[in-house]
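Researcher: Next sequence.
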Amino acid sequence: MSLDTESEISALRRQVFSLLVALVVVSGTLTIYLYRQASMTGKDLEAIKPQATQLIGMFNQNQTMMINFVNQLAAYGNAHPDFRPVLQKYGIGVVPPPAK
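Model: Next structure:
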């Protein structure tokens, strides 16, 4: 091999080494960033959990009233056909009256 070829190989080795060091630094930085994000998200989740538990409890308490209200709307839709499109728009099923 000539001196020129050896210098090119040496330059390529230095470049590959530099790129590997840069890759390790970028990978480490990304790992640290993602770890911090995960730990902050966990802390946020723990802070919000009591509020979410309270909200779910209130929903469960009021669920029977909401179902009753929807049933009353469906009954009103059965009695008033002109109101049925509004109920259908919001996905409230109205049972059509039996055919005579």
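Model: The chain has a mean pLDDT of 90. The radius of gyration is 33 Å.
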